[in-house]
Amino acid sequence: MSKLANKIEAHDRSISEIMDDKKYTVDYFQREFKWEERHIEQLISDLTSSFLDEYQPEHKRKDIENYNSYYLGPFVVSIKDGQRSIIDGQQRLTSLTLLLIYLNNLQKELGYNEKLEQLIFSEKFGEKSFNIQVEERILCLEALFNNEEYIPKEDDDESTINIVARYNDIQKAFPEEIKNGILPFFIDWLKYNVIMVEIIAYSDENAYIIFETMNDRGLNLTPTEMLKSFILSKFTDSKKRQKANELWKKSMQTLHDYDKDEDQRFIQAWFRSQYAITIRPGKADSKNEDFEKIGTRFHSWFRDNLDKVGLTDEKSDDFELFIDSDFKFFLKIYLNILNAERTFTPELEYIYYIKRWGIANSLGYPLLMAPLTKNDDEETVFKKMNMVARYIETFVVRRSVNFRLFASSSIRYTMYTLVKEIRNKNLSELQTILKRKLTEMEESFEGIRNFRLHGQNRYFIKFLLSRMTAFVEQQTGMSSSFEKYFHNSNGKPFEVEHIWADMFYEHRDEFDQERDFQEIRNRFGGLLLLPKGTNQSFSSKPYIQKLQHYVKENLIVQSLCELTYQNNPNFLTMKNTLNLPFVPHNDFKKQDIEQRQELYQSICERIWDIQKT
Predict the structure, then answer these.
(1) For residue 103, what are the contacts with CB-CB under 8 A and spacing of at least 6?
(2) What letter would DSSP give residue 287?
(3) pTM for this model (two decimals)
(4) For labelling alongside 33, which of 302, 432, 489, 586 has CA 20 to 30 A away?
């Protein structure tokens, strides 16, 4: 191996230095972009909170030079023949590219011109190419860069699908208090004060050794380990300290079996649910408070706020009890939540639902745990958590059918305030508070009157139709489940389908303009859940011919057919008991879609009846 090939370099680099007019490829063992919503949410939260903690209204842009730097971690590249290949760090670099694209679009909307393009793509011989260049992702990134919607295609790879989803997550997570005159300040801070360590290898062999070492032998203490060290340092009895250490290690391994960062999410949720008092208001000059500090450096927050946790430096017994009682109780609760998210549990059914359509975990987990006390038995714990989860689901569904966002940035203050309001409440008190909150909501199911499918809400509409279909069938006495329709692992997956085919010319008796036809065609009442391939096989046929196929499908689809209302006492009993306006539709015109819209609204009002909260 030559001297150069054996060389390894490490340098601290700003985001500007890393991305400005640079070109990267992605190595084969780092091929897919796999970050999930929680990773993006944490990244945006960490970056914006760190910036807002420094910013003051009287500052000039030159003052940013004196702001604290933010360390985003290392990344590894291999350089051969002038080509820079990402060996480790693709997840963060790709996410940063998406953030830069979002900021570029946002600053243009706000009338700024911060020239971010050179951090996103570079130009050579008149040809533009993205700084992280992967052929399969180009069309997607071009659409996002041009502020256009990109709908994933069937042959798109996993990375492309994830890129679209994570860009949408950035849009939801980015805080409102920066979408104004301080945006250029944040962009400057991001470019020059956010730092990564660039590690350069000049051979594949060294590159892979570094990759393996960083992923298998990391030695940096995590916030969880620093918290453990602080707590155990307060033990005076060495045997008790050893016992607590074994309990902690075993518990962390259990959490890591779910995800390598689950330990940190657990402690953040636990501390926020039980001890956090102060919240940063949504103002640009506000400082981070309890809820935000727990999200970034909970070990430091704990050390500085022992009084809020009910501990004192002088009492070793308090720390011992904290581990043996509080820690064990809330760990068990958290594991119940994780299991209920993954496997449908009747006593915690709403936790399963909000995992599919709910608020960010950083908000949801503290809410679920907030009303719990160590004196609660398991039945009471489950009832409280299910009640809170039902509230969360009702909240997000009502917001969604009214086209209102519920991103963490827009509801953070509201939800953290609610955490404090429901903390340690008994079942009766909790129910009263949650009912009042839903009653006071501006958004209601009246929004369904104008609800429709658009490019970004197909996933939610599938969720909603799955909940509605399972509910109606269960109320009729049928064996049915939400999982069957939302994620049918034992058969053909279900898809959202239009009742009307995309054939404007067949509806000229009711529409003069195609855009009016499309608007009504996409109305919620004109949509169904059908097994994949079923509707495609007869989608272009007249409605009257579709009816003979619909009678074989799920009950909401069957309800279009006259036959469903004959010799079907269970269905008719359900219809009358719940007072649902089911009627057959022998033809399907604009008026029929409006009738179905009213039916769908009524079903939703029964599912999420406030009186049953």
Answers:
(1) 114, 116, 183, 186, 187, 190
(2) P
(3) 0.78
(4) 489
